[in-house]
Design a protein that fits this description.
This protein has helices at 8-14, 48-56, 86-92, 120-132, 168-176, 178-206, and strands at 21-26, 34-42, 61-67, 97-104, 112-116, 136-138, 162-167. By secondary structure, the protein is an alpha/beta fold.
Length: 207
């Protein structure tokens, strides 16, 4: 987007917290290596906050940057490679397993979740769980690879994470069909827990 803010400092200067946007940080009931994020939540990419909150449940840490404006919330979009809101970065400094939920336009494909990020093993675990639950995924040949080092999903302890680009039509269904939402989010949740149990503790020690 040509008119998006280049960083959080620019957005903060132009917009009012808790009027135009809000930052939601929820610490999980148990200490762990995982965090679920929606950096374009609220009305920016609708229902990404809902998905992140449902995946995190009461246990995992969660971060959402949410648009609150009556309209034109896309103005609040800071591209993932420039997203540098400090409380998000502070949380990420303690997390080895990072999952970011994004929304994309359908673009003639209303069902497929485009997977990105640099953590190949975490992506593989999420893909397997989502496909097992009946959802379609695509890892390659799409416009959202999410492999820049500066991408918010790759700024945790390990320098890599997993990014889910969920199409608009699927997000709308997830918002309207509680059972489908539960199926989707539990699949991702299982993947995070499995990956974190295998790799999270080791990653924390390494870094």
């Amino acid at each position: 987007m040509d008119n998006e803010f280049p960083n959080f400092a620019a957005l903060k200067t132009a917009k009012a917290e808790n009027i135009d946007y809000r930052i939601v940080v929820r610490r999980g009931a148990r200490t762990g290596n995982a965090i679920v994020m929606a950096p374009h939540g609220g009305k920016i990419e609708p229902r990404t906050s809902l998905i992140a909150e449902t995946i995190a449940g009461r246990d995992l840490d969660m971060y959402c940057f949410e648009g609150l404006m009556p309209q034109s919330n896309r103005e609040l979009h800071i591209t993932s490679r420039n997203f540098d809101e400090e409380s998000a970065l502070e949380l990420l400094r303690t997390k080895a397993t990072v999952v970011a939920i994004h929304g994309r336009q359908d673009r003639d494909d209303p069902s497929t979740v485009y997977m990105g990020g640099k953590d190949v093993m975490l992506i593989s675990e999420i893909v397997w769980r989502l496909q097992e639950a009946g959802f379609q995924t695509n890892n390659d040949n799409h416009p959202f690879p999410g492999i820049q080092d500066s991408n918010i999903v790759n700024r945790g302890l390990t320098g890599k994470g997993a990014q889910l680009e969920v199409p608009f039509s699927l997000r709308r269904r997830l918002g309207n069909e509680p059972e489908l939402l539960e199926k989707f989010c539990m699949a991702v949740r299982k993947a995070i827990e499995t990956f974190d149990a295998k790799n999270g503790a080791q990653s924390s020690i390494m870094f």
